[in-house]
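Service request form, structural biology core

Requester: graduate student, group of Dr. S.
Request type: structure prediction, single chain
Budget code: on file
Notes: please return the result as structure tokens.

Sequence provided:
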Amino acid sequence: MQSKRQLFLSHVAQTSELPMMLEVERAEGLYLYDPKGNAYLDLIAGISVSSLGHCHPSVVKAVQQQAATLMHPMVYGEFIVTPQVELAHLLSQHLPTTLNSVYFTNSGSEATEGAMKLAKRITGRSEIISSFNAYHGSTQGAMSLNSDEYFTQRYRPLLPDIRHIRFNHEEDLTQISEKTACVIMETVQAEVGVQAPKNDYLQKLRQRCDEVGALLVLDEIQVGYGRTGTLFAFEQYGITPDILLIAKAMGGGMPIGAFISSTENMNHFSFDPLLGHLTTFGGHPVVCAAGLATLRELTEKDYISKVKEKEALFRSLLKHEAIKEIRSAGFLMAIELPNFEFVQAVIKECMANGLITDWFLFNSKCIRIAPPLIIEEKDIRFACKVLLKAMNKASETTLRGCS
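Core staff response, request fulfilled:
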């Protein structure tokens, strides 16, 4: 009989030649557990997904109760489905009044796709501008916003009328014109190894979009839901987008995303043509119930208010001669190390000592730290101890081999 490892390699589609091959049997709180009961502290939260940790009791209870009540009617704005309505209402209570209409999707990529269509429909324009080194998803349209040739070259031709500008370069904002339907921008660039906006860049971007009648779409798929220290990262920069993208942490581990705009904007999908944007499963009652429990927990407890304090603790403990720089926006952190080989050695050594971390798509020299928001001081100290030990070992092996 084939082992699970063999079945995994034979029948589950692979996206790398060397998968991590960690067999996860269960998860709870900060930890993943293998079949032997070994615990691994998840320092990346499933790539910014499990902000409340794994299998949070409130989320599990909501999923179980909803699954026993109603699973799938029809979800794209025709039937009144209680958890969907309640989640949309609660979101609107925590957002500016111009972001009061929610279109639920299954993922962040789908949220991006919907926002691109909506911007074209509202403005009647076709040009879309994004940033170099941005990541907005892997579907055909969302990938078209990606500037990295390594990830796009095998899938061309992609969508036409896509332009890229440099993040934090005010002089590039003049490229936004009366031809531009929208600018899609991460509030904080993630996959480049954490790049936060500087010198009022987002305010200047907002102003330029207003001048030429382009919509501003902010992608908070990775940085939303408290990761940067406020429920939504844009709250820290004094602007409001025309369309907001969210996903990842939104479902407490369940697959859900959304793009959010004003009722006036979103109503463009209801005519010319009728049913202008459809989904079979977006806004599914069970995932909306999970999303509702997640948002309630995040907004009623003090996890978000403690993010900056815990970020500072990480930064104070992570002192090592191999660290070139630490960039962070709350609990999205990048530790820059000498090279990709060093990073891989650290990741491997961390896993051998019960700690899961990762790197970034567009910056292979950086270690990713994006833990659940529920992490406590003792867990942070453990994680940093393991990381520093791994850096010591990587210094002995990779750097000595290069000298």
